[in-house]
Amino acid sequence: MILGKPLAAWCSEFPLVKELMALRETSWFNPEIVCAEKALSDVGLGAADVADASARLSRFAPYIARVFPETADSHGMIESGILALPRLLAALLETHGLADTGALWLKQDSHLPISGSIKARGGIYEVLKHAENLALREGLLAVTDNYAALDSDACRAFFGGYKIAVGSTGNLGLSIGIMAARLGFQATVHMSADARQWKKEKLRSHGVTVVEYKSDYSVAVEQGRQQASVDPCCHFVDDENSINLFLGYAVAAERLQHQLAGAGIVVDAEHPLMVYLPCGVGGGPGGVAFGLKLIFGDDVHCFFAEPTHAPCMLLGVYTGLHDAVSVQDFGIDNITAADGLAVGRPSGFVGKAMRRLIDGYYTVSDEELYRLLAVMEQTEGLCLEPSALAGVPGMERVLTEQQQYRARVGLSPARLAKATHLIWATGGCMVPEPEMSAYLARGRALMARG
Ligand SMILES: *Cc1c(COP(=O)(O)O)cnc(C)c1O
Predict the structure, then answer these.
(1) Which of 80, 109, 111, 119 to probe ligand 1 with, by most ligand atoms within 8 A of CB?
(2) What is the DSSP annotation of 117-139?
(3) Shortest-distance Cα residue to atom 2 of ligand 1
(4) By the 8 A CB rule, do 251 and 121 touch?
(5) CA-nearest residue, atom 14 of ligand 1
(6) Is the pTM above the cut of 0.85?
(7) How confident is the model over 168-177, as pLDDT tens digits?
(8) Could you report the per-residue pLDDT of 246-304, keeping only the tens digit for each?
(9) Which residue out of 178, 336, 341, 373 has the highest number of ligand 1 atoms within 8 Å of its CB and is therefore the one to mutate?
(10) Does residue 387 have its Cβ closer than 6 Å to ligand 1?
């Protein structure tokens, strides 16, 4: 019995559940998709909210540039580049016998400064927003000030009277912990069993308290939440429900719009933009997709990618159960090498809010993530962490599966030939060399097997 209903009944009502339980790679194209204008009204947030987040990041830019010198060149903007992938495209076309697919690009959040993953968007944004609220209330700061003034002993002493805590599989902890500690906060990261040792060590080297758990992400979050709830000076970053994280991610879209324009890439009714986003709890891909939909409307098509062992968002949206259900309820173990995606229960907010905005969801096996990691390195010379490869199979899934879906959203062969496919690479540049070598060795062995 699952939520009062026998498993057999779930499987006959929702046939894909069987595929998910068997850990087979699966795609699901959303039959509820409607035009962006209609679907955006479900979210309860709008362009003004994203603009507010963007303005806040601009206010903090002088401070960021000062305390993280690696962002000096970008004047304190935490942003990554885009990169064409002609050699990976050629390899994928050959493997799958495809042609006329348009262009393939990478969004390199794998190389975001400060914490080396997509979490440097939402996680850092939420810490900055909290710090700003406190400093404004205290009269330490006015929104018209140069925020570089926050780099002072007095401000650090003030923030030192407050705590910031978070539960994390690793990357969110790195972003929140490093940013919070730099401002002067007492930072605590509650880490799940699957978090990598090097991430814990890195956090401790920044003066962050790391609490380790033997269980998975949702337990680490729950424990962190409970400890924080009894302490009025502690702000708990709630990855499962945070609007702030979501808006921090959403700012990526306007930045991408400028980058695409700068690269001469047209996005319009004739030239669709297809975006493939690795999904854990859903805030990162959800926020980015929300921002993109606000800007590009029906000309952008977003897909969420998850590991076969942790398909929490697909399961939640497909069954309509959202955060009422976890993958473990269906006997799926949530054990995956894609540690940023090792999440058993989806956000209670993203799946519902984005229900009519996301074109599709698919799963990828760990073996395939490793294999693609090696293919990416061999073709383009880029090293990413396993999670960050989840976007790669998206193009082929869209092009080869479900003609009905393509017809429904008007993706004719003529339009697809002019498409830009964008793989959102979400992490990797901070993986230590021995770890990356081990990933590559594993991937090459799988590649050789074919
Ligand atoms: C967190 C993370 C994601 C997904 O973000 P969610 O907000 O959890 O959905 C994807 N890739 C990497 C590397 C991550 O760390």
Answers:
(1) 119
(2) BTHHHHHHHHHHHHHHHHHHHHT
(3) 340
(4) yes
(5) 340
(6) yes
(7) 888 999 999 9
(8) 999 999 999 999 999 999 999 999 999 999 999 999 999 999 999 999 999 999 999 99
(9) 341
(10) yes
